[in-house]
UniProtKB/TrEMBL annotation:
Species whose genome carries this gene: Saprolegnia diclina (strain VS20)
Cleavable signal peptide: none
Protein name: Nucleotide-diphospho-sugar transferase domain-containing protein
Family annotation (SUPFAM superfamilies): Nucleotide-diphospho-sugar transferases
Membrane-spanning residues: 45-64
InterPro entries: GNT1/Glycosyltrans_8, Nucleotide-diphossugar_trans
Keywords, alphabetical: Membrane, Transmembrane, Transmembrane helix
Region described as Disordered: spans on this chain: 69-89
Statement: the UniProt record of this protein carries the keyword Transmembrane helix: yes
Length: 364
């Protein structure tokens, strides 16, 4: 224990010394005047020691009181979860180790998409085929969660294409626009459906790079990139890409939140309301909007040197509303006129979608 000032005074008093205000020691004047009797010396020592003890206790109480006040006035900040990564690309960010040739630790892994009609089933098949074409090994399943409105023919085409259709109940919120009315269905990826880790991808996307390394991420409630384009809402995650370790208790928490939270309308809302500060954050180049494939858009480079540098590091392009361009299945691809300020890749993504749809989706 660190000595206190009271301890030093006690020793000096016992030696018959006096300490003046600037710390110098001298022999006490009373001891020079006349010898003191043993009883007097004993009494003096008792009184001195008593005074020292009182001073020490007062000092301790003062320290405790000051510390308590400081803690009350300045609460300790809550540390962020250890599983978070930078919100955007950073020079020090390094990819995770590549996936081994066998399933790590015997875990069951899957890519998941969802479909509530035949059009979405087609889009899911296109995405699943792209996942496999980019090198994902066959021990990782490709699964599409399908509701009752997906036809038997579409399910058979999925199966023939190496994709597993899995029947689930539709999950619909009563409020909201028509396009997103069934988007809550995707949250069934949080249910325990036989897989230890799931990478979920929206079907209105084009996958550009292999995502298997995400299976090696440490555990978190879920991992996702931020919706970087919603600048005023940050921090705010997007549900276009999710990495999930399914847990029925977590799923039930989502169910309760959707029933009780008034601001929850869509899947992305509930994830941000419930777990905004608990999710693992992926760098923003994991999901980039197609509307940002323009030469005059240099705002969202995420630390890369140029627009093309960012494009070359993008994992998923998400079809978004841009000028007259909307989702590719709502447009006539042959009527698209290329503009010089837009990257050729923007148009290539639309053409890729239509080429794959014609080749794979005979049921439409």
């Amino acid at each position: 224990m660190t000595p206190t000032r009271g301890d030093a005074v006690s020793d000096e008093a016992a030696e018959g010394l006096i300490v003046d205000h600037d710390g110098r020691k001298s022999i006490g004047h009373a001891s020079l005047a006349q010898p003191r009797s043993p009883a007097t010396v004993h009494g003096t020592l008792v009184l001195g020691l008593t005074a020292v003890v009182v001073m020490a206790l007062a000092g301790i109480l003062l320290v405790v009181s000051t510390t308590t006040t400081q803690v009350a006035e300045k609460p300790q900040p809550t540390r962020p979860p250890a599983t978070t990564l930078p919100a955007s690309h950073a020079p020090g960010f390094k990819p995770w180790a590549p996936l081994s040739v066998s399933s790590p630790n015997g875990r069951k892994l899957a890519y998941m998409l969802y479909a509530t009609d035949d059009l979405q089933a087609c889009n899911a098949l296109i995405a699943a085929k792209k996942v496999r074409a980019l090198g994902t090994p066959t021990f990782i399943d490709l699964v599409v969660l399908v509701t009752e409105d997906v036809s038997a023919q579409a399910c058979q085409v999925l199966t023939d294409g190496g994709v597993r259709p899995m029947n689930v109940a539709r999950w619909r919120r009563k409020t909201g626009g028509d396009y997103y009315k069934d988007s809550l269905t995707k949250l069934r990826i949080f249910q325990e459906l036989g897989y230890d880790r799931v990478i979920y991808i929206d079907t209105d996307t084009v996958i550009m790079k292999n995502l298997d390394a995400l299976f090696h991420l440490p555990h978190a409630i879920f991992w996702a990139p931020r919706a970087y384009w919603l600048e005023k809402l940050q921090p705010f995650i997007t549900s276009v890409l999710l990495v999930v370790d399914p847990d029925n208790a977590r799923f039930e928490q989502l169910e309760r939140a959707i029933e009780t939270e008034t601001e929850v309308r869509f899947d992305m809302d509930v994830l941000n309301v419930e777990w905004q500060h608990m999710a693992g954050i992926l760098p923003s180049e994991y999901v980039v909007l197609t509307t940002h494939l323009k030469h005059d858009v240099d705002k969202y480079l995420f630390g890369y040197k140029s627009l093309m540098d960012r494009v070359n590091h993008t994992y998923i392009h998400h079809f978004s509303y841009s000028d007259q361009y909307i989702k590719p299945w709502t447009m006539d691809v042959d009527a698209i006129e290329r503009q010089p300020h837009v990257l050729p890749l923007f148009y290539d993504l639309y053409e890729e979608y239509w080429a794959q749809r014609r080749a794979l989706c005979s049921f439409l």
